[in-house]
């Protein structure tokens, strides 16, 4: 079981804190000869597999590295177009690492804002008055848990579907936010959280939750 990441979103929908706690390793590196037996296409400033799943490489996986050097979107480490590089027989054999692309800071900001809107829509769609909005989204590989405070701050945790004690963890994160962000004289409300004590105590809380599940009294 694992806790993947934590997001804190202010009442206006802005991302003010994000922590990647655990990233599952799903990268696959293979050495290929020419011609490449995978169909690659540009997508969202990345080069992804469009056809030809094999050996752990799946459709939708992005090219992450070529010959051990990280790629930068659609370009190799030395600035060459990835598709042009892989289309040149002189560059083979070549080692390519595929995997799920890492979200950029801008993508995280956008997704936090989108969830903020979905949360409001969920509250409005409820047949009952006073709905709290979306508290959990479930997929086959993770669950997104959300806790909104009375002041509109949202705490979101992405975790393994089997992970227990997330409701208690969300309230523990709120407690840490209150103790180490709100009581920090240098912190301004609704602004990004940059506090070492907040980071330290949050990481400790995540480790405790992963190992022990629910928080007990005084934890």
Automatic annotation (TrEMBL):
Identify the CDD domains for this entry.
TRAPPC4_synbindin
Q: Might you report a single GO cellular component term?
A: Golgi membrane
| Keyword Endoplasmic reticulum set for record | yes
- One Pfam family from the UniProt entry? Sybindin
Where found, per UniProt?
A: Endoplasmic reticulum; Golgi apparatus, cis-Golgi network; Golgi apparatus membrane; Postsynaptic cell membrane
Give the record's GO biological process terms. endoplasmic reticulum to Golgi vesicle-mediated transport
Q: Which UniProt keywords apply?
A: Cell membrane, Endoplasmic reticulum, ER-Golgi transport, Golgi apparatus, Membrane, Postsynaptic cell membrane, Synapse, Transport
Q: Which InterPro entries match?
A: Longin-like_dom_sf, TRAPPC
Instruction: Please give the chief subcellular localization of this protein.
Output: endoplasmic reticulum
Question: What is known about what this protein does?
Answer: Core component of the TRAPP complexes which has a function of guanine nucleotide exchange factor activity for Rab1 GTPase. Plays a role in vesicular transport from endoplasmic reticulum to Golgi and autophagy. May play a role in dendrite postsynaptic membrane trafficking.
Describe, as the record does, how this protein assembles with itself and its partners: Part of the multisubunit transport protein particle (TRAPP) complex. Component of the multisubunit TRAPP (transport protein particle) complex, which includes at least TRAPPC2, TRAPPC2L, TRAPPC3, TRAPPC3L, TRAPPC4, TRAPPC5, TRAPPC8, TRAPPC9, TRAPPC10, TRAPPC11 and TRAPPC12. Interacts with SDC2.
Which family does the entry's similarity section mention? Belongs to the TRAPP small subunits family. TRAPPC4 subfamily.
- Its recorded name reads Trafficking protein particle complex subunit
């Amino acid at each position: 079981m694992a806790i993947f990441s934590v997001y804190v979103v202010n009442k206006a929908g802005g991302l003010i804190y994000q922590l990647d706690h655990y990233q599952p390793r799903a990268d696959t590196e293979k050495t290929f000869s020419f011609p490449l037996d995978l169909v690659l296409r540009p997508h969202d400033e990345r080069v992804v597999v469009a056809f030809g799943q094999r050996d752990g490489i799946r459709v939708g996986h992005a090219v992450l590295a070529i010959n051990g050097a990280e790629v930068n979107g659609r370009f190799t480490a030395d600035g060459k177009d990835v598709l042009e590089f892989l289309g040149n027989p002189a560059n083979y054999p070549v080692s390519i690492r595929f995997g799920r692309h890492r979200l950029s800071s801008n993508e995280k900001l956008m997704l936090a804002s989108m969830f903020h809107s979905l949360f409001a829509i969920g509250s409005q769609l409820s047949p009952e008055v006073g709905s709290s909005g979306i508290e959990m989204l479930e997929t086959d590989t993770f669950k997104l848990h959300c806790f909104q405070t009375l002041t509109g701050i949202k705490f979101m945790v992405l975790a393994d579907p089997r992970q227990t004690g997330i409701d208690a963890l969300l309230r523990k994160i709120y407690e840490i936010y209150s103790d180490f962000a709100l009581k920090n004289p240098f912190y301004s409300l609704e602004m990004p959280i940059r506090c070492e004590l907040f980071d330290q105590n949050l990481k400790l809380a995540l480790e405790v939750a992963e190992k022990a599940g629910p928080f007990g009294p005084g934890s």
